[in-house]
Amino acid sequence: MIETGLSVLEMISGNPFAVMWFLFVNGGWAIFLYFFLWGALQVYLNSRQTIYNAKRQWMLLAISVPRMTEQTPRAVENIFAHLAGAHVSATWKEKWFDGKTQDVISVEIASIEGRVHYHVYTVRGYRDLIEASIYAQYPDAEIFEVEDYALKVPARYPDAEWDAFGTEMIPTMSDVYPLRTFHDFEDKVSGEFKDPLAVLLENMSRLGPGEQFWFQIILIPVEQKTFRAKGELLVKKLTGQKVEEKEALWQKILGFPFSLLGMALQEFGILPASAALAKEQNPLASRMWTLTPGERKVLEAVENKISKIVFQCKLRFVYAAKKEVMKKPRIVHPFIGVIKQFNTNDMQSLKPETKRIPPSGALWFFKESRNNKRKIRIVNAYRTRSFWVGDPTFALNIEELASLWHFPISIQTRPPQLGKTEAKRAEPPMNLPFG
């Protein structure tokens, strides 16, 4: 038996093509079949989704809040919680026959030559949802539909007058780890809140003629239980609990021919039985009572993040200006500095993607043409509010979102050109005489 097994092993190991054929015949064909069917389904699904997306009607809403409001980001956190109601689970028929996908919402801050505005870009069917969410927290706000400011900047580069730069902000760790939030900017004694976006709004208001800066957060409402399960898995790992990780279907398919080969070699007596190699592993004892203060802090922060509603998100920014006035350090570096306020060394951090998306001076070959393609890609991704162009989306909860995007606190932020409602709206008095 052993000699027969050795001869088989020598035969297939002497010729790499024989090895490939042996694996293919003994289960490897399933791998090719799996990926072929998966690819065909993706092509079909993408075609249906393209048709569905072409029927969507999009709109851009401008939001103006009263100058005298003193609402904190807690109010905006409630707005995001309400927007989570946009999540809709498509049925099997809707997904595979109609191509239905989850509608996205984009919350934006744009400076057009120093004039700063807040915007929400979404499908028309969500207008009532968005207006109700905002009016519930800001009863005196004004919301009106406007033309898309992003369409007024060239989409093709090089351009005779304009130049552009932009990229995405991406996480450095698993998205289960949280960012710093607005609670971390509140004085623990006095309770005074220092708005982390005040610097951004100030810099955006200083842009001059021919300069524009856009910042957007794409929101994709999602099923909450998937992310919560991911977070609970991390909590178990942090506390030293035993974690049983299940293999995905593709992992089982890829491992099948190798498992079959191993079983054959065990049958010939070349390899020992798997049971003989298995070692008794005792489950790890919980480390809950031996966590350091820093580890306990991280654990509490992770549990707080998974306790709140999350969206799958994408953060990107674009700086576009006429060539004679364009100064990238004027706004890009301050913006990155603002985002770094929310970073921590022991948990989550956001950083600009620098390798594939933005124009780069580090390119060696065909530098100009490659950078122009990158400019076209990032500008068009912003204009279409695309969630699939660039890096994968990642999860942010409503507290993190309210920290990164919220209306200005009037007692702290007074940029001279911030677009706000000048006065409150009120109903006329009931006893007003009619003449």
Shape: globular
Element pattern in H and E? HHEHHEEHEEHEHHHHEHEHEH
Could you give the count of β-strands? 9
Gyration radius over CA: 28 Å
How far is the first residue's CA from the last residue's CA? 112 Å
| Helix content class | 25-40%
Strand share of the residues?
A: 15-25%
Q: Quickly count the domains.
A: 2
Provide mean pLDDT, rounded: 84
Largest sheet: 9 strands, antiparallel
Structural class: alpha+beta
Count the DSSP helices.
13
Residue windows where pLDDT falls under 50 for at least 5 positions = 275-284, 420-430
Question: Top keywords for this entry?
Answer:
39% helix, 13 helices, 435 residues, alpha+beta, 16% strand, nine-stranded antiparallel sheet, 2 domains
Structure, explained:
This protein is α+β, with helices and mostly antiparallel strands and 435 residues long. The protein has 2 domains: 1-55 and 245-275, no CATH class; 59-231 and 291-404. It has 13 helices and 9 strands. It has helices at residues 2-13, 16-54, 73-83, 92-96, 127-137, 198-204, 224-238, 249-267, 274-277, 293-306, 332-340, 367-383, 398-404, and strands at residues 58-64, 105-112, 115-123, 142-146, 162-171, 211-221, 310-322, 350-352, 394-397. Strands 1, 2, 3, 4, 5, 6, 7, 8 and 9 form a 9-stranded antiparallel sheet that branches. α2 (16-54) packs antiparallel against α8, α3 (73-83) crosses α13 and α7 packs antiparallel against α10 (293-306). The N and C termini lie far apart (112 Å).
